[in-house]
């Protein structure tokens, strides 16, 4: 597939692009800064609607001129570009950029007849991550039916983006899938960061004791690219196990006492349920911090 990928210069985007290229896809990265990857790139401001639709409808590399058959068409758009969290700039600017870029990207895709859009939503939509103080889940494990009423501008922007995507899908009928991505971990971060998580499990409370390996995130994007006909969907994206060394029972006793449990859980199972992604698009995460740290 030929894929227009936004935000490929970021942490998650770099790994996703590399994985998709390994699956044989042709990827064009649209970002405000270069990625450093071996990939065709267009450096654009995604808050400018004209630049977005222009980038999606132009040549991207010299070799595309050789066929003499006009601008190649895209098969899908993957939209990862965003201000990645609160407390980088102002709250309002985080909200503005994240909502307007998503609107611009999806609008351009549907107007150009691109049949599929995959966009990055977030674990923060469940309100736990950036809460002022502590907010406990309504129930565990958290699935896609859990209420999404966040209090911060980043998570608010992601909820607005989901509404935007759902509305465009209802109007056009194309496939638009939102990925509620958990804390993205690069391979080198297991040895670098996870020993501290073992020492202090409470440090993972805001991430719902979950994580997603950057390579498995690329796999999830590929699964969505290969699955057609689902209309509008959102998926939790996390690895199968928790990011701490204690058991689920110990996590419940220390952090989720009194929180309803909607099903029995395995001793090391993630509290960020990924069952829907497995059932509907064939998501099968392969990596774990346990493979590195034992």
Keywords for this structure?
9 helices; 294 residues; NAD(P)-bd_dom_sf; Rossmann fold; 7-stranded parallel beta sheet; single chain; globular; alpha/beta; two-stranded parallel sheet
Describe this structure in words.
- With 294 residues, this protein is an alpha/beta fold.
- It has one domain (2-186, 211-241, 274-285): Rossmann fold.
- The chain is 35% helix and 15% strand.
- The chain is built from nine helices and nine strands.
- It has helices at 11-22, 49-55, 91-111, 153-172, 189-199, 214-225, 248-255, 275-281, 290-293, and strands at 2-6, 26-31, 40-43, 76-79, 116-122, 175-181, 184-185, 212-213, 232-237.
- The strands form two sheets. Strands 3-2-1-4-5-6-9 form a seven-stranded parallel beta sheet, sandwiched between helices. A two-stranded parallel sheet has the order 7-8.
- Helix 3 (91-111) links the parallel strand 4 (76-79) and strand 5 (116-122).
- Helix 1 (11-22) packs across helix 6 and helix 3 (91-111) runs parallel beside helix 4 (153-172).
- The longest helix has 21 residues, at 91-111.
- It is globular, with a radius of gyration of 19 Å.
- The two termini are 37 Å apart.
- The relative contact order is 0.14.
- The model has no long low-confidence stretch (mean pLDDT 97).
């Amino acid at each position: 597939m030929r894929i227009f990928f936004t935000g490929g210069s970021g942490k998650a985007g770099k790994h996703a692009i590399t994985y998709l290229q390994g699956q044989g896809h042709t990827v064009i990265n649209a970002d405000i800064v270069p990625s450093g990857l071996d990939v065709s790139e267009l450096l654009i401001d995604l808050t400018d609607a004209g630049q977005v639709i222009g980038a999606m409808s132009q040549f991207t590399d010299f070799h595309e001129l050789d066929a003499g058959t006009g601008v190649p068409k895209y098969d899908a758009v993957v939209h990862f570009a965003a201000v990645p969290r609160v407390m980088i700039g102002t709250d309002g600017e985080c909200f503005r950029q994240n909502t307007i870029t998503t609107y611009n990207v999806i609008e351009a895709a549907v107007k150009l007849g691109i049949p599929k859009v995959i966009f990055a939503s977030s674990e923060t939509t469940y309100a736990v991550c950036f809460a002022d103080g502590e907010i406990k889940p309504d129930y565990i494990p958290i699935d896609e039916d859990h209420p999404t009423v966040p209090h911060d501008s980043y998570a608010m922007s992601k909820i607005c983006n989901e509404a935007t995507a759902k509305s465009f899908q209802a109007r056009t009928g194309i496939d638009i899938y939102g990925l509620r991505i958990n804390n993205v971990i690069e391979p080198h971060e297991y040895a670098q960061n996870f020993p501290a998580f073992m020492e202090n499990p409470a440090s993972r409370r805001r991430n719902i004791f979950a994580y997603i390996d950057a390579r498995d995130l690329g796999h999830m994007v590929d699964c969505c690219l290969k699955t057609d006909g689902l209309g509008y969907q959102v998926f939790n994206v996390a690895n199968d196990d928790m990011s701490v060394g204690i058991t689920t029972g110990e996590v419940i006793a220390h952090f989720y006492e009194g929180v309803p449990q909607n099903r029995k859980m395995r001793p090391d199972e993630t509290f960020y349920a990924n069952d829907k992604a497995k059932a509907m698009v064939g998501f099968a995460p392969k990596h774990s911090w346990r493979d590195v740290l034992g």
